[in-house]
Structure formats: structure tokens, C-alpha cells
Amino acid sequence: MVFYVTINKNMKNLIKSILNKNNQEVIPEAFWAYFHRLPQKISVEWFRDGKFIVGRIDAEGDKFMTQGVSADEFIEMVNDALFSFYEIPVEYFGALKSRSFVPKPEEYEKLNDAAVVKSKMGLEKKELVTA
Question: Residue 119: which of 129, 109, 130, 131 has the closest Cα?
């Protein structure tokens, strides 16, 4: 089955600007299709296991796990796990990370606070908006 994606000029320019910021040479229509393949919302339950932050990701019913040593690495691994699970080609990872799932500041603080042993956070995909 083949799907064709058509996008307007403003959206194509927005996607090209995202791709240019990430030094990626990818097809805007493919970026758009991969962007919409990702879930809109996810929830992540995480806990500390020694030096690791371990997370259980629920992406609209699809469940999987990942881990990281620091808050930044953990967030990166959550996004990489999503991209891999939803079969996004590696060359699109960089461009999609600019629209990735990022925790709210208070949730990020918990990830950085070693005294917090476990928590849960909800993350939403950043939308593409044209001016």
C-alpha cells in the first residue's frame, strides 16, 4: 500500500527550516509522514536503579522500556526508543528531535534530583505550526 502526502508551501518551508537547523538532507514529505507516525502523547513511569534512571514508556497502548544515566541522557533515550519502535529511519532522528517529547520543567527537576526515587510524567509531541 502506498500513501501520498501533500503539504502546503508554508508547511514545506517550516519543515525545511527544521531540517536545515539539524543539517539533515531529508525529504520534507517523508519528515511529515514520520512526524505523524509518532504518538501524540506518551506517559513515562521511571525509577532509579543504582546509577540508572529506568523508564516504562506507554505510547498510546504500546509499551516498552529504556534507561539512561543522567536526566538528559534518559530523555534522549526515551525519544530514541520511540523513533526506533515506530520505525523512523535514523537519518530523520536529528530532525525529529527538535519536535520531540520534552518534560515540563518540574518533571525535569525530579529527574535531576537523586532524592526522588520514582515518578511519572506525561509528555506531548510539539506540534508543527506555520505562521
Answer: 109
Determine which helix (DSSP H) or strand (DSSP E) holds 32, and give its type and residue range: helix 28-37
**Residue 42 contacts residue 123 (beta carbons within 8 Å):** yes
What pTM was computed for the model?
Answer: 0.77
Q: With a cut of 80, say whether residue 24 has pLDDT above it.
A: no
Name the grid cell of 80. Answer: 530514541
Report the Cα 85 to chain-centroid distance in Å.
Answer: 11
Residue ranges per domain, the chain? 9-124
Counting other chains too, the contacts that 67-74 makes at CB distance below 8 Å and 24 or more residues apart are: 70/112, 71/108, 71/111, 71/112, 74/46, 74/111
**pLDDT tens for residues 44-87?**
999 999 999 999 999 999 999 999 999 999 999 999 999 999 99
